[in-house]
Amino acid sequence: MTELTCADTISRFTFDDCAVRGEHVLLDSSYQELLAIHHYPPVVAELLGELCAAACLLAETIKFDGLLTLQIRSEGEIPLIMAEVTNQQSFRAIARQAQQASSRDFQQLFTNGQLVLTIQPKNGKPYRGIVMLDGNSLASSIGAYFAQSEQLETRLWLHSDGQRASGFLLQQLPGDENSEQWQHLSHMASTLTKEELLSLPRETLLYRLYHEESVRLHPEKPVQFQCTCTRERLENALLSLGEAELRDIIAEKSVIDANCEFCNRFYSFTAADVDAMFGNSSPESHH
């Protein structure tokens, strides 16, 4: 058994004797890539790590081809925080207007908060679930979301220290009537410490919790930080401003500069680019 945690991976485990599945994710260099883009206060950086871990865990429990987004909106010290992950386990995340956040009180950070879960398949209609933020942690709030939306019984444990982020999920599958076993497995997971979740290899972690159970490990999958921004997406965002406003900017600055708020990638658009956006060969036709 290895003594080194395989970081930036997510993996499933199942129990042979009951209809419960689990997921374990550990983010290391991918999490550091995210934090290197923006300088967040410590409490924001840690919550971003937890949110990314949670999004990765939830995406792995759903069969879809597209994007899953976890978002919290609030009137507290963190007005908006969100994480997006693809079905291929590529994620990105951001917090807005949270540079002054410093409280360690979850409700003060997210006063009157709403938790929004969105699944956007490449083909098909999107799904969105919204509930008031309930609980004193991100993990308990997501658990409350599943309870309120009458979905599968689901519990999460999330931790981050600004260097690593990790998550652990248990989910009771349909047809399992053994509530006593579910309570036992959940109780054992609740004994996990922050240090254990952030440092132990999954084999050691699962042995520590469930050495008396028959646990089946599934192959690990890589997780990576990767922004989904493209020049085409930025063009679509600019189109929403309207042709007149874009030409005013070109007249004033000769070029339109735009950057992705997730990854800070820089894009530049010239007068010729604006012509192409609106299907015109030259700006003179608009005078």
Automatic annotation (TrEMBL):
What's the source species for this entry?
A: Litorivivens lipolytica
Provide the protein name.
33 kDa chaperonin
Keywords of the record? Chaperone, Cytoplasm, Disulfide bond, Redox-active center, Zinc
- Do you know which CDD domains this protein is assigned to? Hsp33
Q: Which domain of life is it from?
A: Bacteria
Q: List this protein's GO terms for biological process.
A: protein refolding
Q: Name one GO cellular component term.
A: cytoplasm
Localization terms from the record: Cytoplasm
A GO molecular function term, named singly, is: unfolded protein binding
Task of the protein: Redox regulated molecular chaperone. Protects both thermally unfolding and oxidatively damaged proteins from irreversible aggregation. Plays an important role in the bacterial defense system toward oxidative stress.
- Name of the coding gene: hslO
